[in-house]
Design goal:
60s Ribosomal Protein L30, Chain: A, Phosphoribosyl-aminoimidazole Synthetase, Chain A, domain 2, seven-stranded mixed beta sheet, homodimer, alpha+beta, four-stranded mixed beta sheet, 332 residues, globular
Chain lengths: 332, 332
């Protein structure tokens, strides 16, 4: 099959053909084929949320997903961490000359499928091609727009002493799946990325519990970075309980083998929520009723102070710091 | 000065420092420092426009601009080709390991200055670092959001036979500036990119002439691609007059020397507008009153049919085709 050439990104006939035959066909929706460099759309709420991410994950296709589905899930998740209903995505491709068109097609198809499943259409885009050796196959940027219901006020600075902290399932799956696949490590079971769109889970949570104070997805830097961010933004301390944190056995083993702390490993289908203590049990029950929340757990609580620390399974305490140095490059 | 390392993109302490000490300081605005992965904002119109572009221009700094200012101007321009008032930008950086932090600072400063001058703040962002040899210094994605006034209906499919076609100044400046700088060609005068934000010119045009049918910026593929796109979307023919098309002498000479057609060369501060014939002269006068429209010209008209063609200075006619093959890679 034809490889991508610089002409596919130069604004001429080849680029138009690529856009019409691949992108427009796969991303097919009524907003997309307007043929302009912009796309127009209507909103019904005044308060919007925007988020952007460039995906540079290596390899492009991995157990549990690929850069295309990840670019949809990741940005949809960031937008809805405001409590917003994600409306639309933009998608921008930086393709390395020589990429097999078949691989591009496979990834664009997967992206289109993820967009359809999450109900968030891709309505505008851009294609650039760079010379061989100036990229790594494919980088994708997605930017998402959503509407924030007027009864919500969810932000990282809203955690209050006494609040409970809930996570919707096991940590470290994404990072360890990428790392072990990339390094050719063989474990008894194949580790799978947890890459998933969290918009329907969050819509359910926010419909019944608009009192939720914080939502955040523990991606790069893992749960440790996520909790440190929240503690720092809200000017509070956070205490988590090691025995309550869900970790799959195979992730635990892989981390031990490689000397990694699962608290620092990236997730792509997880959220941390902080809520007033009086709604915590009911919120947990609601989360458990959703396919992406079955393994939800209350993992800790907010205290006065400034640090993040963990009560270990042996009854000790250790400080959970910001991950300092490079652990896993290019996992998203 | 310290070079960028993979740790600057890994979600840890180094990334937080880079974001706080560089991006937040330079892009300083009241929306940005919310500390979340999303940013929320309010709109007052129902109809919005969105546009995205990844900038991969080489070299990063060139006569008349750099990748930072270009990433602001380019996306602001795409958004306002809908007649919209651009409100906000997102900015996402893919940095190659080893990039000098000084160069990154220079580009981010230029981007911040461009954002301030155009009045379109950067309110959310993302930073990724890829290994040496997997990028080319820096790629920047910007995505823009704007509000479309309810009295406008500007789209590429609105051109009607009889309409007049106006351009706001000379063509080919950007592409020839990049090419001659990149190839080390010396002309008598230094060619400068025309990179400029067109939002205030467009706001002026749309305020007094809401009847405008089309707006488009002739970027990649130049005026030839732009007019072919408009003719194809509107299902009309377009006729332009060679002697009316503004081209600077030095751009003309450089194109002749290199065997390039200035109609195919990219612009970054130009717009083509198509309007009903009865407002063309007054619209032209209004455009000429704006600093970015001083050299505006009526360059042609819309006819029934399907082709784009040019009446040459010698009275002949030639078909203006889509640029077919790669001319100038990585000029935006």
């Amino acid at each position: 099959m034809e490889p991508i050439t610089l002409a596919h990104g130069s604004g001429g006939k080849k680029m138009v053909t690529l856009i019409e035959d691949l992108f427009l066909k796969k991303f097919n929706n009524h907003n997309l084929p307007q043929g302009n460099d912009f796309t127009s759309f209507e909103v019904s709420q005044k308060k919007l949320a925007i988020s952007t991410d460039s995906y540079v994950i290596s390899p492009l296709i991995f157990p549990g997903g690929d850069i295309g589905s990840l670019a949809v899930h990741g940005t949809v998740n960031d937008v809805c961490m405001s409590g917003a209903k994600p409306l639309y995505l933009s998608a921008s491709f930086i393709i390395e000359e020589g990429l097999d068109l078949k691989i591009l097609e496979k990834i664009v198809s997967s992206m289109a499928e993820a967009s359809k499943k999450t109900g968030v259409p891709i309505i505008t885009g851009d294609t650039k091609v760079v010379e061989k050796g100036k990229g790594d196959g494919l980088y994708i940027n997605t930017t998402g727009i959503g509407e924030i219901p007027s009864n919500l006020n969810i932000t990282g600075s809203n955690a209050k002493p006494g609040d409970k902290i809930i996570i919707n399932g096991s940590i470290g799956d994404h990072g360890m799946a990428i790392l072990s696949f990339r390094e050719g490590l063989n474990f008894e079971t194949t580790l799978q990325s947890d890459s998933a769109p969290l918009n329907s889970l969050i819509a359910l949570m926010c419909e019944f519990f608009p009192q939720i104070n914080c939502l955040r997805d523990p991606t790069r830097g893992g749960l440790a970075a996520c909790l440190n961010e929240l503690a720092s933004q809200s000017k509070v301390a956070i205490k988590i309980f090691e025995e309550n944190i869900p970790i799959k056995t195979e992730v635990h083993s892989a981390c031990e083998l490689l000397g990694l702390d699962p608290l620092n490993v990236a997730n792509e289908g997880k959220l941390v929520t902080i809520c007033p203590p009086e709604i915590a049990d009911d919120l947990l029950k609601t989360m458990k009723s959703h396919p992406f929340g079955v393994n939800s757990q209350i993992i800790g609580e907010v205290l006065e102070g400034t640090d993040v620390f963990m009560e270990t399974s042996f009854g000790g305490q250790r400080k959970i710091s910001w991950p300092e140095s490079e652990q896993l490059p290019r996992i998203c």
